[in-house]
Write a structure and sequence with these properties.
This protein has two domains: 235 residues, Rossmann fold, CATH 3.40.50.720; 117 residues, no CATH class. The protein has 14 helices and nine strands. The strands form two sheets. A seven-stranded mixed sheet has the order 3-2-1-4-5-7-6, with helices on both faces. A two-stranded antiparallel sheet has the order 8-9. It is elongated. One of its GO terms (molecular function) is tRNA threonylcarbamoyladenosine dehydratase. This is THIF-type NAD/FAD binding fold domain-containing protein.
Length: 415
């Protein structure tokens, strides 16, 4: 009995000592792991010798010239957003020679991010996107100054987050409301900006376009973006990357439970590459590529607006609730693409009139037609059934007007 007790005591003592030793070792390992993580996260890389930097950029020098690459290296670029599009943009800007970049994003890497983020690994899940980006870029270009900013850009902090006289701001935000505020700020402060318009729900790389905001078409988000910018008298001068591909049908996405459409990683990367290409060429002063010219129809919009104002006052007694020139331009381009709603006629003498004369002149009740079509339409008896009278034409008109209503509802849901 006594021997058994002594044996048991010896075993318990050994187990206690062993557990204490294991806990000590675990603590050491945990501390070592933390220190290793800190060193890994904030490890400063030795700058490359200038000769090595020039070798690094040799292909760009051959393409853009020494002076062009020198301009790129001296430039300061801010990338707003570090998700699917923003991460590829930041990566390629630094690879292309940008030596001062600020990356703004409040988010963290999630497991689902790995299919479309440019540099994130499984080990990065849960870490801040901007820190993950800085760590990766430090290995590529140790001479570059990378500023990770883990904040959400908003009206209250734009002055500080966009400080430093950036040569370019790249907008990869997904919220139209935030994109509009960012564009407005940049225009007011004479900062060059380029914006990406939703890559979500797109799968055809051949449909990606790079153009001025005034020439973008066939994308609901681009349309909403343009309309809101017009409220601040901005209708051109912002290059955008977007896709003319029709949005992927919701019904084709299995187990779709979110409001936003999914993004396909390869397409997002192409958006980012397109943004980077434009910025780099602009900074280098590379003149071989220029955006298509914007549509010069200001005179047409002004003429139509005056005609609409006169008609509203003379026929309907409306002197106050009148569409302005920007409204006319939006309706002309967005709803009717510069063609008659009735006949697809392309004519600089097109006019606008109410679709339903019992309702006020508005975005959702104004049609673009030829002068004769307007005259015939306005001569119809007030009780005319427009669907019965026009048939398929009425269906097309209603479809376009209802699409505009949906765009308005989409914007209101963003508020």
């Amino acid at each position: 009995m006594g021997a058994s007790v002594l044996t048991a005591m010896a075993i318990l003592s050994y187990q206690k000592i062993t557990r204490r030793h294991l806990r000590t070792e675990e603590t050491k390992e945990r501390r070592s792991s933390i220190i290793s993580l800190i060193n890994d996260e904030y490890e400063e890389k030795d700058p490359l010798d200038e000769a090595l930097v020039l070798e690094f950029l040799a292909r760009n020098i051959a393409f853009l010239g020494e002076e062009g690459v020198s301009k790129i290296r001296k430039s300061f670029v801010i990338v707003v957003g570090n998700g699917a599009i923003g991460s590829y943009t930041s990566l390629m800007l630094v690879r292309s020679g940008i030596q001062h970049i600020r990356i703004i994003d409040k988010g963290v890497i999630r497991l689902r991010s790995l299919t479309c983020h440019a540099v994130a690994k499984v080990a990065d899940v849960g870490k801040r996107k901007v820190d993950t980006m800085k760590k990766h870029l430090a290995h590529i270009a140790p001479n570059a100054t990378i500023e990770p900013v883990c904040e959400t850009l908003g009206p209250d902090n734009m002055d500080s987050l966009l400080s430093g006289q950036p040569d370019f701001v790249v907008d990869t935000l997904s919220s139209v409301k935030d994109k509009v505020l960012l564009a407005k700020y940049c225009k007011e402060h004479n900062i060059k900006i380029i914006s990406s318009i939703s890559a979500h729900g797109k799968a055809d790389p051949s449909q990606i376009q790079l153009t001025d905001i005034s020439s973008s078409a066939q994308d609901p988000l681009a349309r909403m973006y343009r309309r809101q910018l017009k409220k601040y008298k901005i209708d051109r001068g912002i290059p955008v990357v977007y896709s003319i591909e029709k949005n992927l049908n919701f019904d084709k996405v299995s187990d779709f439970t979110k409001r936003s459409l999914p993004v396909f990683g390869p397409i997002a990367s192409m958006f980012g590459m397109s943004l980077t290409t434009y910025v780099i060429l602009q900074l280098a002063g590379f003149t071989a590529y220029e955006l298509p010219e914007t549509k010069g129809r200001d005179g047409v919009y002004s003429r139509i607006q005056k005609e609409v104002a006169r008609k509203e006052e003379a026929v309907y007694g409306n002197k106050t609730d009148i569409l302005d020139v920007d409204d006319i331009g939006y309706i002309f381009e967005e709803l009717w693409q510069g063609k008659s709603a009735f006949s697809d006629t392309l004519d600089r003498a097109l006019v606008m009139t109410r679709w339903d004369r019992s309702k006020p002149c508005s975005y959702t009740n104004t049609i673009l037609v030829t002068k004769q079509e307007a005259k015939d339409h306005e001569a119809l008896p007030a009780e005319t059934d427009l669907h019965a009278h026009y048939g398929p034409i009425a269906e097309y008109v209603e479809k376009q007007l209802n699409l505009e209503k949906k765009v308005q509802q989409l914007w209101e849901s963003c508020q």
